[in-house]
Specification:
The chain has three domains: 82 residues, Immunoglobulins (Immunoglobulin-like, Sandwich), CATH 2.60.40.10; 155 residues, P-loop containing nucleotide triphosphate hydrolases (Rossmann fold, 3-Layer(aba) Sandwich); 39 residues, no CATH class. It is 32% helix and 24% strand. It is built from eight helices and 14 strands. Strand 5 and strand 6 form a beta hairpin. The longest helix is centred in the middle third of the chain and has 17 residues. The N and C termini lie far apart (75 Å).
Amino acid sequence: MVNLNETHIMILIYLLLFRYPHPGSVVLLAGSFSHWTAVPMERNGEGWELIINLKPGLHLYKYVVDGLWYWDYEQPYTEFYGLINNIINVPPPIDCKKLVIIRGVSGSGKTTLAKKYLLKYGSFIFAEADQFMVDSAGNYSFNPKQLTFAHESCAKKVENAMKNEENLIVVSNTSIQYWEMYTYVILAQKYGYDLEFTETDTEWRYNPQVLFEKSNHSVPLETIHRQLENLKNNPTLLSKDMMIERILLTCGFRPTNYRPGLGTLFSKLIYYGFPSTVISEWIEKLKSHLGPERYSL
């Protein structure tokens, strides 16, 4: 039997590169996209390759090697009345660079929601602070003392992805309050990314007891109650522009420390490369938002 452990598929927008890296005198590819007519693959080095232009949607396929049919157990597959075929989902095209910010209380299913983007688009850059909560052995270990480092590292991962012009980036932190999303909004504007704000949709997302039981961080029940209250006070708005404006007006400060001087604000905006006209505009908006008694030169 041919070993298919190293069979690879690379998604190239509408083009899919099927690669079969094993010996064979004649290798063909057949699938629902060809009405199961076997199409010859081309030899490339020690393997076989074929590029096919496919429409978005689900497609079934198999390899035909020297007259024998094989399905790849290392790739997604489906079984129907004993008939097994590989299956691949060609995602709809992303017409612009997009940053998705998933919001939700601890234990509400943010990572699960992120995986739905994988099913829809096929691939994306996934970033969350938990990825940087690891011990010396590389195992996940929540440490509240490492929160600042973890969130800074998460933001850096997102910025690096934007520098590489990745089409889709998904951030999955709690992002309960507006100020927590400030850095990501600034990065999106700096690198020209469209923004999408979404919340978890699990049945238990507002149930404190269930959230407490599902949380991976041993978050106290009282903290979950506080998170729910903060989320209620910082809702995801229907208007994306209004959402962005409210986030920018926080200047990235926690509410309890929401007394930024204009010098601090200038430093933040200059650091991210905003022109003086934009800086002046947001200074005036900040003054209006805070009131004259809440800012200082």
